Target: HypC/HybG/HupF family hydrogenase formation chaperone
Amino acid sequence: MCLGLPMTIVQTDGITALCEYRNEQRRVSVVLLSDASVGAKVLVHIDSAVRLLDENEARLISDALDGLEASLNGQDCDRFFADLIGHQPQLPEHLR
Model:
């Protein structure tokens, strides 16, 4: 399984960026992004920033990762997925 991390750009030269998530920093490629500026939230897969995130989406992804960790540790994880409770997830049109 491949997980994307919601990271924040700390510095960039336009080709790579130093990004941070939970006190971990790594240098990633930002060549796929047109606006990779310092302070931007990006979704990082295998050391490549694949798209920009808004603050809310970055928080939801971070909460989901916290929920996954809690679940793996045998802890209650419902609070991390509160945005899903009572909602029926919908497949994207191309997958229906």
In short: The mean pLDDT is 89. The first strand starts at residue 5 and ends at 12. The two ends are 22 Å apart (CA to CA).
